[in-house]
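Chapter review: from sequence to fold.
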Amino acid sequence: MTDTKTDTKLVRLSILTGVNERIELCTCVDEDNVIRKIIQSYEDIWQNTVNSGHISKDPIINKWSGSSTFVENLDSPGTFEYWQL
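The C-alpha coordinate string follows.
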Protein backbone atom coordinates (compact mmCIF):
# COMPACT_ATOMS: atom_id res chain seq x y z
CA MET A 1 0.00 0.00 0.00
CA THR A 2 1.30 3.43 -0.82
CA ASP A 3 0.37 6.57 1.08
CA THR A 4 -0.87 8.73 -1.80
CA LYS A 5 -0.01 11.97 -0.01
CA THR A 6 3.69 11.13 0.17
CA ASP A 7 4.10 8.17 -2.21
CA THR A 8 5.62 6.30 0.74
CA LYS A 9 5.38 2.50 0.64
CA LEU A 10 3.84 0.99 3.76
CA VAL A 11 4.28 -2.44 5.32
CA ARG A 12 2.67 -4.25 8.24
CA LEU A 13 4.90 -5.80 10.89
CA SER A 14 3.77 -8.89 12.75
CA ILE A 15 5.19 -11.76 14.77
CA LEU A 16 4.44 -15.45 14.57
CA THR A 17 4.60 -16.86 18.08
CA GLY A 18 5.88 -20.28 19.09
CA VAL A 19 2.28 -21.56 19.03
CA ASN A 20 1.67 -20.27 15.47
CA GLU A 21 -0.36 -17.25 16.51
CA ARG A 22 0.17 -14.19 14.29
CA ILE A 23 0.09 -10.88 16.17
CA GLU A 24 0.20 -7.58 14.30
CA LEU A 25 2.63 -5.02 15.69
CA CYS A 26 2.08 -1.96 13.51
CA THR A 27 2.03 -0.44 10.04
CA CYS A 28 5.06 1.63 9.09
CA VAL A 29 7.06 2.93 6.15
CA ASP A 30 9.00 0.32 4.19
CA GLU A 31 12.48 1.39 5.28
CA ASP A 32 14.96 -1.00 6.88
CA ASN A 33 16.08 1.51 9.53
CA VAL A 34 12.47 2.14 10.65
CA ILE A 35 11.65 -1.58 10.76
CA ARG A 36 14.89 -2.31 12.62
CA LYS A 37 14.17 0.36 15.26
CA ILE A 38 10.65 -0.96 15.88
CA ILE A 39 11.77 -4.59 16.17
CA GLN A 40 14.79 -3.65 18.30
CA SER A 41 12.52 -1.69 20.65
CA TYR A 42 10.26 -4.71 21.20
CA GLU A 43 13.34 -6.91 21.65
CA ASP A 44 14.80 -4.51 24.24
CA ILE A 45 11.51 -4.26 26.17
CA TRP A 46 11.15 -8.05 26.17
CA GLN A 47 14.75 -8.56 27.33
CA ASN A 48 14.43 -5.94 30.09
CA THR A 49 11.17 -7.54 31.26
CA VAL A 50 12.77 -11.00 31.39
CA ASN A 51 15.90 -9.71 33.13
CA SER A 52 13.85 -7.90 35.78
CA GLY A 53 11.77 -11.01 36.50
CA HIS A 54 8.52 -9.22 35.74
CA ILE A 55 5.61 -10.16 33.52
CA SER A 56 4.38 -7.54 31.07
CA LYS A 57 0.74 -6.56 30.67
CA ASP A 58 1.45 -6.34 26.93
CA PRO A 59 0.56 -9.66 25.23
CA ILE A 60 3.10 -8.99 22.48
CA ILE A 61 5.94 -8.80 25.01
CA ASN A 62 4.69 -11.93 26.80
CA LYS A 63 4.68 -13.90 23.54
CA TRP A 64 7.88 -12.41 22.07
CA SER A 65 10.19 -15.24 23.16
CA GLY A 66 10.75 -17.68 20.31
CA SER A 67 8.66 -15.64 17.88
CA SER A 68 9.55 -14.82 14.29
CA THR A 69 9.09 -11.38 12.76
CA PHE A 70 7.45 -10.89 9.38
CA VAL A 71 6.91 -7.91 7.10
CA GLU A 72 3.79 -7.88 4.95
CA ASN A 73 3.88 -5.83 1.77
CA LEU A 74 0.58 -3.93 1.74
CA ASP A 75 0.72 -3.63 -2.05
CA SER A 76 0.49 -7.45 -2.07
CA PRO A 77 -1.57 -8.40 1.01
CA GLY A 78 -0.79 -11.87 2.29
CA THR A 79 2.80 -11.71 1.00
CA PHE A 80 5.10 -12.00 4.00
CA GLU A 81 8.87 -11.73 4.25
CA TYR A 82 10.79 -13.12 7.23
CA TRP A 83 12.74 -10.32 8.90
CA GLN A 84 15.69 -10.75 11.25
CA LEU A 85 17.62 -8.20 13.32
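Two observations follow directly from the output. The beta strands are 2-3, 8-16, 22-29, 68-73, 80-83. The first helix runs from residue 32 to 52.
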